[in-house]
Amino acid sequence: MSYKQNYIWTNLRIYSLFSMLFRILIEAILRSAWQSVATMNKVRTKYPVVDVFAGPGGLGEGFSLALGGRAEPCFQTVLSFEREEFAHRTLFLRHFLRHFPNNEFPEEYYRYLKGDIVLDDLYRRYQNEFHKARQSALKLSIEQKNHKQVSQIIRQRIAGQKKWVLVGGPPCQAYSLAGRSRMMGDPDFEQDERHFLYREYLEIIIKHQPPVFVMENVKGLLSAKVKDEPIIRRILSDLSNPGSARGKNLNGLGYQLFPLTEQIATIDEIDPRMFVVKAEEYGVPQARHRIFIIGIRNDLHVRPRQLRRHAPPTVHHVIGNLPKIRSGLSKGNDSWQNWLHAIDGFSGSGLGKQLNGHHHANVNGLKYPECRISMKYPGKCKRSHPALDILFDSRLNTLIGHESREHMASDLRRYMFASMYAQRNRRSPQLRDFPTLLLPAHRNVSSSLSNLPFPDRFRVQLPNQVATTITSHICKDGHYFIHYDPAQCRSLTVREAARLQTFPDNYSFQGTRTARYHQVGNAVPPYLARQIAEIIAEVLDAVPASD
Hints:
Layout: H1 3-45, E1 47-52, H2 58-65, E2 75-81, H3 85-98, H4 107-114, H5 119-125, H6 127-136, E3 137-138, H7 147-158, E4 165-168, H8 177-183, H9 198-208, E5 212-218, E6 225-226, E7 229-230, H10 231-240, H11 242-245, E8 255-258, E9 276-278, E10 289-297, H12 315-319, E11 328-329, H13 336-344, H14 351-354, H15 386-389, E12 406-407, H16 409-425, H17 445-449, H18 494-500, H19 513-522, H20 526-542
Parallel strand pairs: 1-2, 1-4, 2-3, 4-5, 11-12
Antiparallel strand pairs: 5-10, 6-7, 8-10, 9-10
C-alpha cells in the first residue's frame, strides 16, 4: 500500500470512528432528553383530585382510569368525601386498592371476593394501604358546621399544588323530576335545603380556588324553580362569580363555564341545555342524561375540547355473557319446584290475540335456569369496545353481585309476558298491551291505560339497544329493569346494573342489596368520567407551571 493510500485509509478510519462516537453521543443526549421528559411527565400526570359528595366513587374511578395517551394515570384522588355509611364503605375499599402500586390489587382481595377471608382480614394484612385510605376517603358531610374542618383537610392534602381539580355532584333529590313530584305538596318544598347544597360546593371553590372544577347533576335541574326563578340560572351565575354570590371580595376571582358537548364562542352564548351530556352518545350503554359543568378559572385562558362521540355497546353486549339465573319468590318457600309451579301458573290463553296472533307467549320451549345466584366469572365480553374493556379483570375468578331479587308470583308472570312481548315486537309493552288477567290491581291502572301517569310501569331492557337510565329507584323494585330473557323471568342484578353503568367487574359495592342497588343507580358511569378526566388533564397540561 502506498503512502497516499495509507493516508486516505487512516483518515477514513478516523472519520468512521468520530462518526460512531458522534452517533453514540447524539443517541445518549436524545435518550437522556427522553428520560427527562418521561420523568417530568411522570410528575405532571399525577394531578390531585378532590371529590366531594363522592357516593360510591364513579367519578373518582373514571379519573383513576384516565391515561390521556400516557403510560401512567393522569390523576390521583387525594380526597373523597361521602357521608352515607354504605357508600363510604364502598368508596373506602376502592381507595384502599388504589394505594397499591400500578393498580396491582393484592391476591388477598380476590380471596375476599371469593369469600375465603373477610374484609377486616384484608385490611389487617395491609396496614399501610389501610392507613392511607383512612386519610383519603373520609366519612364526612359537606355542610356548614363542617366548613372549617373540610377546608383544613383540603388545604393539607393539596399542599400548595397549583394544578388540581375539584369534582362532585351535590345531592339532587330536590332537582330530580321524581323528587319534585313527591315533594310538590310540601309547603316547605321551596325552602328545602337540598335546593342549595351546591352552595357547599361553591364554598370550597371560594376558599381553595381550584384551577378547574367539574360539577355534575341531574337533568331536572334545567326545569327546577325556586320562587319562580330557574335554579339553573342562579347556579350558573354563582359558579361564574363565586365571590359575588357569597358577598365576598375575591380580587376578581371568577370562572368561565364550558359545556362538554358543544363548542361556544363566548360565555354569553351558553344555553343551560348545552350542559346536558347524553351518555349513550359517548359510548356508555345507557340513555343517561346528566348535567356536567366545567369551570376554568378566568386567569388561565384555556379552553377544553369537547367529548368525542362514538357508538355504545348494546345491553346484550354488556350483560349477555353473564350466567343465566332465575328470579326468586318473595312469598313461601323459594325452592326450584315452587318457582316452577309459580311459572306454570302463567296462562297463555288469550295472549295470542293480545300479540297480534303471535304465539311467543307459549312457555314450552323455554329452558329455565335452576339457580338464583352464580359466582362463575364469564371472562371478557366477546365484542371489543373501550367501555367493555374496563369491565374485565384477568385475575378475577369470582363473579360478585350476580344474585336475583325476590318477586311475587304475579309479577313473575308479568315479567315473563313483558320479555316475550319485547322479544317479538322489539319494544317494551305498555300497560294497554297487557292482557286483563295480568294487569296489576292498582287504583291508578285505569289512568295508566290512558297514558297517565306511568303507562310503562313494566319496562324490559331491550337487548339490541342501550339500557334506559339506571336510577336509584332500582333499589325499590325491578319493574323498570326487566331482563330481556323470558327464561330468567327477573329484574337486573346488582352486577348487571353495575356493568350498564360501566363499573369494573372487580368493583365491590358494600352493604345490603338494597344499598348496593342505590349506590349503583346514583353513580356517574366511570367510562364517561374517564373521558371527561382526559379532557381535564389536557386543560391542566396547558396551564403554565407558574400559574
